[in-house]
Each structure stands twice: as C-alpha cells, then as structure tokens.
Amino acid sequence: MSLPLKIAWRYLVAKKGHQAVNIISIVAVCGVVVATAALICVLSVFNGFRGLIMGRLTMLDPQIAITATVGKTVDDADSIISAVEDLPGVERAVPVIEDQALAIYAQLQMPVRLKGVPDDYNTMNDMDSVIVDGEWKLRDQVSRYAVAGAGPAIRLMVRPDFLGMVRLYAPQRQGRVNIANPMGAFRQDSLFVSGIFQLQQNSYDADLIYVPLEMARGLFDYDTQATQIEVKLSPGTSESQVMKAIGQALGSGYQVKNRLMQQREAYRLVNIEKWMAFLLLAFILIIATFNVISTLSLLIIEKDSSIATLRALGANDSQISRIFVLQGWLITLVGAITGVIAGLILCLCQQQFGWLRLSGDPANMIISAYPVQVQGTDVLITLALVAAVGLLTSMVTALIMRHRLTTN
C-alpha cells in the first residue's frame, strides 16, 4: 500500500478533530450507500415486473412465429409447414388465421379478434393453465366451439354452459357488394362457447376468441393461406439455431420471430420505464456526492497542520493532493460496496418474505408482493456509475487541493 493511500485510509477511519466533520463524513458515506442500494433495488423490481409481464405474455405466444415480410398472409402454408417440420429441433408447426370480426350474442355485440387454430392447439402452449371457466374444446361430435377471452365473455355475457350460440360476421374479401342487400357483403357463422380464458393481459383478454381453423378459413375466405405459422421446438433445442435454419430454408420473404421479438413493444416500454427510473436515481446519487466534496473540503481545512508537517518531511504538493483524492475514492468505494451489499440483501429478503405488498385486492391480482429479480449487469452498471461519480468527486477534490496548496 502506497504512503498516500495509507494516510488517506487513516484520515477516513480515524476520529476527526471536530465533531461536525465526523457527522458530515458519516452522512457522505450513508448518502452513497442509500443511493447505491436504491439503484439495485429499483432496477431489480423493474426486472421482476418485466419477467412477470413477459412470462404471462409468452404463455400463449408461440416459441417461434413465421409471417410474410410483404402482405398479410403466408401463401401455401402447408408446404411451408412441411419444410419447417423437416428441420432438426422442430417438434411441430401449425397454421393459424387471425383477423377482425363482429360477434353478436342475443342483443349484445362487439368487435373481436378471431384466431383460427387446430383443435389441439392447447398442446402448443400453456392455454390449459389460463382457462378459468369451462375447458379447451373446439369441436365434438355435435358442434363446433369457441374459447373466448374474459373481455368478450363479460361484454357479450356468455358462459360455457349457455345454450345460445355466438354469431360471427366478417366482410367478404372478394366479390361485389350488393347495395340492396348489405348483409350479403358479410360471411357469417355461429358456434357455442366451451371455455373462458384470462391471462390478465389486456392484449389477449380484451377481444381475443379462439375458433376452429377451418371455420376461420371459411369466414375470412382463405383456403391454403395462413396469417402466421407457429412453431413448437423440441425440448433442449437451441432457439437461435432453429431460427437461423428456418430463415435459411425459407429465404428473405418471411420474418422469423421468437417470443421476445413478438412482444418487442411491451419489452421496450418496460425497459424505457426502467432506465428512466435509473436516470432519476443516478441524479440523486450525483447530488449525494456533494456531501463527499463538502467532507473533503472541511477535512482539508482541518488538516492544515498535518499538511504543513508532511511538507516539512519532504512531501511535495502532488503527493499531498493525492492523499485527499484517494480519500474521495475511498468514501465512494466504501459507500458503493456497502450499498450493493445492502441492496442485494433487501432484494433477497423481498424474494423470500415479500415484505413490500402491492395495494389492491389479492384475489384480483397475479401477485401480492413486488417481484424482484437481480441481474448481474445491473450491479455492474451501478458500480460503473458510482465509479464515474467517484472520478468526478476526485477531480473536484484535486482542484480544491491545488488551490489550497497554491494559496498557502
């Protein structure tokens, strides 16, 4: 350990000559500790919310989705599916058709988003886990069925055990409209409701209804087309490798997206909120460093006699200045390490005990406590920020010390 560092450490831990300097030193370190711990905790909470949101959204999203780069539909979907299923790592690929329609039940009506899927589509995702009433069933020996989101179920007032059928209307894509018979411009069909699902995510619950694939094709006037091809991977398969293989097999006319890419906007929004909170707390940390600068300024004044002694012993101005610069770094370093440890302990306690609770009725919420997920990158970013703030503090301290030595 160099002599300036030894003296700086001694100045940091030793009792100061004036009580006010001791108090300000403690406040300076505590300010860095609290700001650093707050950064770790807040970033971890945002990570927890992001993980929760993405986890809920991906319960129904396919592992890989294939869409056309140009246009709304994938032509000759069956041949595309055959080519995809021949690739290693692909367990299954299915066509789906998604479009807008009008749903009417009794005297109630609402625009809905229909998604035509195969009968066993629930094996492609976690649909069974979000069914809150009834069951997943799209057909039996008697009739065809729909599985509706909570939004359509509430607005249309339908239940799985109701005998009435939901009527669906969609405008014809081809042909001319007969003004004398406006209803002739619409295709229509009807079916019962077999189940209600609720994901507690508005993008799914608000207007989505699952219907049999061939019914959607007839209603929207499709034959071999699909609006999307959804792919399920074999367990243990590398998602990135399969995506690369699909892209190479199909060419540039198709977009291949994983779950994160499918929910890009939701992911981007959560990230924006997270880093906005980071910037606000970073500003608070910068404000807290003024306490460090104040502490060093008072310490420089208090140590006038010690500085004179060091000069008499042969220390030059550069060595003396380095002592107080290093002390600024030590205050920041001690505060940062303590703050990171405190933040990690608080996060672990929140994960284990859930001390901080969300307001509201627990029966209507997915979780009752704030979710927390610590990421190593956030810890490194926080330490980098504190290091940058420590550098700023040292630069200011060096200027103050240089001016002090010059005037003396």
What does this protein look like?
This protein is α+β, with helices and mostly antiparallel strands and 408 residues long. It has helices at residues 3-13, 19-57, 77-85, 150-156, 202-205, 213-220, 239-250, 259-262, 264-302, 304-312, 317-353, 376-407, and strands spanning 64-68, 90-105, 108-117, 131-134, 145-149, 166-171, 186-197, 208-212, 228-233, 254-258. A six-stranded mixed beta barrel has the order 2-3-8-5-7-6. A hairpin with a 2-residue loop joins strand 2 and strand 3. Helix 1 packs across helix 11 and helix 2 (19-57) runs antiparallel to helix 9. The longest helix has 39 residues, at 19-57. The radius of gyration is 32 Å and the shape is elongated.
In short:
The chain is of the alpha+beta class. It has helices spanning 3-13, 19-57, 77-85, 150-156, 202-205, 213-220, 239-250, 259-262, 264-302, 304-312, 317-353, 376-407; strands spanning 64-68, 90-105, 108-117, 131-134, 145-149, 166-171, 186-197, 208-212, 228-233, 254-258.
Shape field: elongated
Number of strands: 10
Rounded Rg: 32 Å
| Estimated share of beta-strand residues | 15-25%
Mean pLDDT score, rounded?
87
Strand order of the largest sheet: 2-3-8-5-7-6
Helix content: 40-55%
Number of helical elements: 12
Give the CA-CA distance, first to last residue.
29 Å
Low-confidence stretches: none
Largest sheet: 6 strands, mixed, barrel
The string of secondary-structure elements, in order, is HHEHEEEEHEEHEHEHEHHHHH
Q: Which structural class do the helices and strands define?
A: alpha+beta
